[in-house]
Amino acid sequence: MATPLNTIFSWFQTGDFPTEQQFQATFSSFWHRDEAIPVGSIQGLAEMFESTLNMQVFNAHLNDLNAHAHLARRNASNLSESDANAWKARLNIGELPENIATYDYTKTGYVMMKDGTVLEVGDLGKNVANSKPTSVPGAGLVLGAPWGIDTGGQPMTITGLPDKSADATFDRVKVQNAAGQEAMVTNMYNILYKGLTGLTAQQATNISYLLNGGIGSDGPMSVNNISPPIIQNRFNSVEYILLRGVNLNLSAVGRKIEILAADKTTVVLTIPDNQIQTSLNGQELVFYYNFHNFPIGTYYVRITSGVKQHITELNIKIVQEIENINTSAITWDFVYDSAITPSPLNNAVGGNFTIVTPSGTGSVPKLSLKSSEIFAEGDDFYIELKVSFGAKHAGYGTPDSAISDIGLGYYNSANSLNRSSLAKHGYSSLHAEALQHYNNNNVAFSSSTPTDILIVFIKTGNLFRTIVGSSSVTQTFSNNSGYAIFAQIVGRDFANHTIQGQVTKAFKFN
Fold it and tell me: How many Å is the Cα radius of gyration of the chain?
């Protein structure tokens, strides 16, 4: 039996000393954790359990299909026909006609959609792809006018198409503009032109070679020499024209040589194909034609090799006749730097001269040779000089950039050590036996010695064309002066280097 709390409290007042019996009575008044508490000892617990549903009864109720027979099931499986009709009456639902989609709509074959739009029955389902054909953000189909596909930056692949390369009826190409609009073309000029415009020079060359069927030279054509550049039309005989350059081995398919007027557009003459001869190395091209009574004027040559074309920068002049210059009547004058001793081998007679290079270095000429007036004021002319450079001993001299000049200048210019050549060939000394050659201060080529160089000067009006080897330069000078030859030679630190010049051809053609 439990001891009252007041009694327990009295045993444990300040200054008290509880006995063993009091301690036992105190702890016996409370439930120990190891002891079960009887239901009857908890006030009201038994009454609470009596008011709850038995679990077995509850489970039996859940499994009883007829427990709620008076309520309608979600699938309406327990509704009788009278129950269903009662529901319809209560919800004010009558019988639905079979054509409810077009009910009260006068046009047959159409369906009114939820948003009020009207579609033909045959169009239903055609716009299914417009819903969401892909999970890529921003991608999808836009149907209607215009019709579009947006891949959202993802690759789009079409596979399994048949190969129609051999089918001539497949002659159309699908194209696209900058806005992505697609269309069809049968004339592919614009596509090819724009595509080829961006090619590098090498890519263009490769394409042109393929288009030529792999026949002929595969590089771009160029011409750096036409010989002869002047033709008389008073002779009733054929004239052979030699073109020198690169990649002139023309394709046998679609090759053509045309003579163009001065506008470089108008075709005056097409050379017959059987009057054209090419070379395998592509460096020379020869054709012939009878220019008898051909109109006097300036003409250009257009060369066609398959899909490649080239119009020469050099021209051909047709004249009535030429007037040859008597080169044996040419006289010369030498001027020397006072510090040098002239070589006894220096000599100039008629159309020939010999010069031994003076000793000493420097950029100012130490020797100047001037001819008499060869062409008068206003003359149009052609002159060739062959210059022979003797052997420059390999054991002498170091590279020297000072330039010696051989060319044409105004006749009224005084013969002095001041440079007077206007149109000219220049040369400087390289290592050992080599020379560097120039065309009017433009580097042309280098050569070993001994060697021969052909220099050509052609004047028409105030235009001068200078040809040194394969280099051609056109300049403008006065037409109001006569012209003479000038050879102005700088000194070198090697001895006995001989230069010989010869006027091989000179005529005027006014």
Answer: 56
